[in-house]
Amino acid sequence: MLLLTSWFFEKATGGGAYKFADLFKEKLGISLDKEDEMNCLVAGANFLLKAIRHEAFTHMEGQKEFVQIDQNDLFPYLLVNIGSGVSIIKVDGDGKFERVSGTNVGGGTYWGLGRLLTKCKSFDELLELSQRGDNRTIDMLVGDIYGGMDYNKIGLSASTIASSFGKAISDKKELDDYSPEDISLSLLRMISYNIGQIAYLNALRFGLKRIFFGGFFIRGHAYTMDTISFAVHFWSKGNAQAMFLRHEGFLGALGAFMSYETHGLDDLMVHHLVERFPMGAPYTGGSIHGPPLGDLNEKISWMEKFVLKGTEITAPVPMAPPGTTGLGGFEVPSSKGGTLRPDASALNVGVLHLVPTLEVFPLLADPKTYEPNTIDLADHSELEYWFTVLSEHLPDLVDKAVASEGGTDDAKRRGDAFARAFSAHLARLMEEPAAYGKLGLANLLELREECLREFQFVDAYRSIKQRENEASLAVLSDLLVEIDSMTEDESQQNAKAVEGADVILGMLPLARELLRRGTEVVLVANSLPALNDVTAMELPDIVAEAAKVILEGMGRAIHTNFNARFKCDALKE
Predict the structure, then answer these.
(1) Domains of the chain
(2) Among 75, 258, 282, 339, which residue carries the largest CB count within 10 Å?
(3) Between 100 and 513, where is the model more confident?
């Protein structure tokens, strides 16, 4: 069962919504508002693909690549939901879908057989076993049949699986003679491979090249995704690809959330996505804003934050890509030798928060293609450089943040907590840069600011800015007199020289000069600080006499918004 709660409603979908309805009423006094499972799955998938940037990704040979989906070219697609069984749904539009196929061999099959054969106590334990398994002790390979040789005539290598569990026929062994790790891996391959093949055959049936896999069976498990991906790639001869969703375990809950639209979103005060995340746990992390979802409200956007457990971040689990072995007619990575982290059950997602006030910046030339990141941290050397910079700067930042709160014992405690949390984020991202979606420098810097705010440091540079503003205002009049005494050429050079100093001694003289030349000027500031930025709340007090606006990069246009295009002229430095 997937459950979504708010202060007013309790939405639920899936079989558990019916099975446990009386128990919820008896034990918790909650009446479940049941929503149709298939409707919710499709609505949830459509929502994610439209609203969350970098939601979809491919996973081949341990490598994750994000795919940007054009919501105007989203349909039709095939949605393969892998739960206890498998439902295969052809989605033609919002509210337009048909369950075209399915199979009873799914996650329940893997867990059921695995529990009987290995005595595992949980689904996650079974997955962990597979990470250390070697299927060659159980699966019959082509080489086992042909004396270690390939069957080149039909394109099968010696390491291709000819029969899952086939060696158990001839081996004179009992169940206890087989490793639970090997059994788990063979089971995972057998089931994942067949799901991938059945999915592709249905895609071929309807002429679809885009296949999305979701459901709680996948659980962010890299080897499961690799196996499914190779099946689709092999049987389609590369013409189709398997894609996965970062929130794949939450499609139904999100779909149930979409039903709130009938009640009016303005009536909802709190929304929490509840499935694996503990209620009341502190969460922090990068804000990931998707474009507004027009079906709901043009001014709605979404923010994603990542849950912390102490200093542990609930996030995806990396699976080291080892060597290769065979599966169903093609080569796939072997998982032998890898290890699974203790937080392996955690999904590659954060908590989604509704943000009703965000709007697309009106002066962007093309909001659909807007990308704030100039520096792509997929480049490992760039990643290491910026992680080193942020790590080395962290103690100084903590000192400034604590000072901004008066240096109290409570501020020191929160400062230490922030340092541990942000260090945990950096360590997680160094291990897997794509853990929270596509990572650029702008995302990394925003993650740090969001992390500060989660520990109640609204403006870490507040005390420093106050001192600098007082000192700057004291000399502003002298600077303006000096500028006024210059020739036109000299004043132009001076404007360039002082432009990036700060708002008072940089932007105010520049804005004043442009106004004198008849230029329309608009002064803009962020609602929340990034580093020592002057904010929109502070700007009116500093420039009470300014009436027009200009765009200005405050010295960071090199790594953010350098490539952004606007409808008006923009200065970037």
Answers:
(1) 2-104+194-355 (3.30.420.40), 486-550 (no CATH)
(2) 258
(3) 100
